Amino acid sequence: MEVQDTEYASAFTPSVLEQWRRRENLFPGLALLMLTVVGWVYIAYQTSTMDSMETMTMEAMSGARISTMGGFVPFVSGWTAMMVAMMIPATLPLILLYRIVSRQRLNPIRARVGIVALFLGYIAVWAVAGLPVYAYALTAQSIGRFAVVLPAVLLVIGGVYQFTSLKRSCHARCSSPLFFLMQKWKPGTAAALRLGVLHGLDCLGCCAGLMVGLIALGMMNLVLVFTAALIIFAEKTLPESHRVARPLGFLMIAGGMAVFGFSLLGGMENGIESPMEEPGMPAMEDSMENMEEPGMGSM
User: Fold this and answer.
1) pLDDT digits over 210-256, tens only?
2) Is 119 exposed, middle or buried (0-12, 13-18, 19+ CB in 10 A)?
3) Mean pLDDT across the chain, nearest whole number?
4) Which residues, other chains included, contact 68 with Cβ-Cβ below 8 Å and sequence gap of 6+?
5) Is residue 77 part of a domain?
6) What's residue 56's pLDDT?
7) Which of 1, 103, 117, 186 is a Cys-bridge partner for 193, taking CB atoms 3.0 to 4.6 Å apart?
8) pTM for the full predicted model
9) pLDDT top residue among 20 and 286
10) pLDDT tens per residue, range 155-192
């Protein structure tokens, strides 16, 4: 296969698909998919228990559709599990291609260690990406009613990002696993770890806009998370997947403007319906009662 043919070849391009779907990759492929299932089960469990957590109440009050999930460690654990569930299926072709190349060039033990290092480097990038998300959740909880506009702002930012050159360049590398491997592969555990980090950074740059939109709409909404995972899988693996970016960007920007409009209308309605009372001012009913003279009840 010529280099120019692999540069923009997606994982499901027939010539690339033939490389990574070999029978020798069946067991490791199934093991990674089982890890994905475990990630989805953990997400579903967290989603089902969120209603009983105090932070869910804070989320509903702020309007930011995100919570800290009870603290830093639970948040990072949940975020990392979500990244495992969402990203492994789309990254599976690269991991299996690496396995084939490393088994051809290294002894079996070093090849296995390299696969683990590649995987850990990739997931580490996404785990660290959860830190600004945690900071956003804390900010949303601290600014009170003004947090209601944050989802709209994030949607617009994520939509605009879909049109940037950084998005295009990261997508080109992230969605061409064989070419990426041919360009970056080096022997050794440290090199495999570096390879995973580099691929993780490319995928983060490719998916950043969509992930921002997911955070805006509800990070623990299982339907939204699964929809985002499907879009990521399509963008990273299917031929001509670059055509998804711009329509998705337009949709996110329009959605952000709609959310902003509804947020303003909701704020105006709350302002109209709230009682116009100052601290210390007696309620209307109390005023009416005070107007009755003593002894009126006996008449």
Assistant:
1) 999 988 887 767 888 899 999 999 888 887 878 888 999 899 999 88
2) buried
3) 77
4) 55, 75, 134, 137, 138, 141
5) yes
6) 45
7) 117
8) 0.78
9) 20
10) 999 999 999 999 999 998 888 888 888 888 888 889 99
Percentage above 90 pLDDT, the chain: 27
The label of the residue with tokens 């979500």 reads 82
Q: What does each C-alpha distance from 26 to 22, 109, 116, 220 come to in angstroms?
A: 7, 18, 17, 32
Domain of 187, in residue numbers: 10-270
Give the whole-angstrom CA distance, residue 253 versus residue 155.
6
- Total number of domains constituting the chain: 1
Distances (CA, A) of 237 to 87, 89, 240, 241: 12, 9, 9, 8
**Residue 8 CB coordination number (10 Å):** 14
42 found inside a domain: yes
Domain contains 292: no
Answer for the pair 263, 152: CB distance below 8 angstroms, yes or no. yes
DSSP notation for 31-98: HHHHHHHHHHHHHHHHHHHGGGSHHHHHHHHHTSS---TTSHHHHHHHHHHHHHHHHHHHHHHHHHHH
Encoded amino acid at 9, one letter: A
